Amino acid sequence: MQFKHPELLYALLLLIIPIIVHLFQLRRFKKVEFTNVQFLKNITLQTRKSSQLKKWLTLLTRLLLLACAIIAFAQPYISKSSSYKTKSETVIYLDNSFSMQAKGSNGTLLNSAIQDIIEHIDENEKITFFTNNSYKPNTTVKAIKNELIQLSNSPNQITYDAALLKGKNAFSKDKSTLKNLVLISDFQQHNNAFNTATDSSIQLKLVQLKPVNNYNVAIDSAYVSKTNAENIELSITIKNSGNPIDNLPVSLYNDDNLVAKSSVNSTENGSVVFTLPFNQMFNGKLSIEDAGLTYDNTLFFNLDKSETIKVLSINEADDTFLKKIYTDDEFSYTSYKLNELDYNTISSQNLIVLNEIKNIPNSLTTALKAFTDDGGTLLIIPSVDSELSSYNQLFINYNISTFNATTPEEKKITSIQFSHPLLINVFDKKISNFQYPKTNKRYVFSGPSGASVLNFEDSTPFLTQNENLYTFTAALNEDNSNFKNSPLIVPVLYNIGKQSLKLSQLYYTIGKENKIDINTKLQQDDILKLGNENNASIPLQQTFTNKVELITNEYPEKAGIIPVMNKNEVLKQLSFNYNRTESDLYYHDLETIEGLNVTKSVASAINDIKSATNVNELWKWFVIFALAFLIIEMLILKYFK
């Protein structure tokens, strides 16, 4: 037992005073012979003994009364835990990711956690509180109550390791305080392993909130599966992590107008196809109704009128294969011989192909460097008997290695970098028995030359990429190579052309870096905005001669269709959707991990913290005892004879 005011216990020495007074009153009386009547002597002796017992009982009750009163003023208490400290710090992380939309026994997991925090934490207690997208250091529940009530789900979830590190850094450097870190989440399984290593001075408490059921249906993705001159087939993938689906309605909207409706049946994954008109503006929204998570029940997308990509070929060799790849439905292909080239057309192109030019003039080298610096893409196909000094001067401008002399030996092109952006969606699976193309003569770089796309059998590069410069190391004419007859030539050259102007996709994912080319020419000091006049933001952007590259990551915060505006002019509509990684309701089994303090409710974790820092105050009991002794004394004085 401890005392808040132990100095008051010195008052117990004052108890000697009533003892002295009492002893003074009990001094021995002098005997005086009065009479010899035996009966009177017996009555006197009995009365005297009774009076002494009464006085001793009265003294005892008064001493106990005064002692209890003095101890009550000293405010005694006992701690409930051996780790009791007079000062503590509490840091709380609340996961407000989309998986916390799942239904618990008292509403959504997020709302029930917020309600428990408000109800069980003293409103004036200092805490540090943070979520996936907010941080409130050294605050109180009273100060952030309105923000807690209005807290919404965040599309971005920090990892549990990051939450532990952020919580640890929120504590002070005072080693005398008891530090409590509370992580409140459903602890959904992700690709990264769950690690709870913390400082031994921190008391880690995990609150795992579990939904009533793990059923969820989501619109996983949408893509164009087939295109012809009149129509586009749009395929939608439905992901089901619960009971089998029977006739789940899938609605298709153009803006706010319902244009089609279908249904899907599936045990795990299902699909549905909608037919849309080709080359027409379509601001689409797909919608389903599901009792699980709500964020993944809608998916936005855009279909725009096709934009042509401008391709210029500068030739000293046959360009028939280029004309067959860069067709009029998607590209605007222009071809010049080197001696007939109009330099004024270079700046307006998206892709320029140097098709087996023997000698690159210095004027063309300068123009091409200015073109690529302005965002254009350059593809180099060397000649068998190229003037290496002119090529190497061009490479020096790009800070890459130069060509050595030609190597007159047959080599097969055997290595395909399947993960390269040019080939990432070309093959359904990695191929080992491919009929590899070959070349008779080739150039070898003198050093590193960028990222390899295709390599020879000796691991030297056949096609490399250095930012927006693509380089073949061998001529593609039929006398030197059969690459034109290979199935690789079409996807490689086609994707180089498509990626020279990043046409907008059906939709983009919030939280990932997206690079979007807007095909427009801006005046000086003009900037592009995302959003309407009332709610717009300025994304990261880089302006080129014929386009503006937008870079988005965290913005926008909400899914939807957002216009790209130049002043008051709408240039384009872009669709953004939430990442679907949280649609699968699979959770860590924390109870199987040793050494973790895991609870299933916020209230229980908060009460555990209070029990470690609070005390049992005993002064009220001593006041009650003092009153009880006072009553006993009164009863003794009144009824004890």
Overall pLDDT score: 83
Radius of gyration: 42 Å
Note the total helix count: 11
Helix-residue proportion: 10-25%
**Contiguous runs where pLDDT drops below 50 for at least 5 residues:** none
**Gap between N and C termini:** 39 Å
Largest sheet: 9 strands, mixed
Strand order of the largest sheet: 18-17-19-20-25-24-23-21-22
Proportion in β-strands:
25-35%
What shape does the CA trace take?
elongated
By secondary-structure content and strand pairing, the structural class works out as: alpha/beta
Query: Could you give the count of β-strands?
Result: 35
Transmembrane segments: 6-24, 56-78, 618-640
Protein name: Membrane protein (TIGR02226 family)
Keywords: Membrane, Transmembrane, Transmembrane helix
Organism: Meridianimaribacter flavus
Provide structural commentary:
The chain is α/β, with parallel strands linked by helices and 641 residues long. The strands form eight sheets. A nine-stranded mixed β-sheet has the order 18-17-19-20-25-24-23-21-22, with helices on both faces. α6 (320-325) links the parallel β17 (309-315) and β18 (331-337). The mean pLDDT is 83.
